[in-house]
């Protein structure tokens, strides 16, 4: 079994491949993550929001008919659709936004395809008083106009991306 080197390699694989302009920002982000991930106050705040705002833990549902139909393993469905905003995306967005706030940042920048990640980002930014800037392919903004409206209602700036095929 390979263990990562100090540079993040597992044998010949791994490492960090980012533009030089982003290296300092990523180093700052990594340092903050390492600092706060074990801090009791940060963990308690995250846990409180996950429980009282997001709606976690979400239940497991035993899919009895599917289990019977497939004649094998007992199948359970994790009901992440019951989270606030209707998907699992808010779990990660909440942790990232709390970390950004701890770092003294005032704006969160994200990208989204169908809009679920953008809605989750806009939601936690509204909750925490952070500015949200969401990049979304121009074709996706047409296809997912309802999610664009939701992001905007939450105070996010949605920037259509026109390069490439207009999707992210």
Can you give a write-up of this model?
This protein is 48% helix and 17% strand. The chain has helices at residues 20-36, 40-54, 64-70, 89-102, 116-128, 138-143, 145-153; strands spanning 9-10, 13-14, 60-62, 76-78, 107-112, 131-137, 157-161. Strands 5-6-7 form a three-stranded parallel beta sheet. α5 (116-128) links the parallel β5 (107-112) and β6.
Short description:
This protein is an alpha/beta fold.
Please describe the structure with a list of short key phrases separated by commas or semicolons:
168 residues, alpha/beta, Rossmann fold, two-stranded antiparallel ribbon
List the helices and strands in order: EEHHEHEHEHEHHE
Output the structural class.
alpha/beta
Mean pLDDT: 94
Number of DSSP helices? 7
CATH architectural name: 3-Layer(aba) Sandwich
Q: How much is the radius of gyration in Å?
A: 19 Å
* Secondary structure: number of strands: 7
Q: How would a textbook summarize the main sheet?
A: 3 strands, parallel
Q: CATH topology, what is it called?
A: Rossmann fold
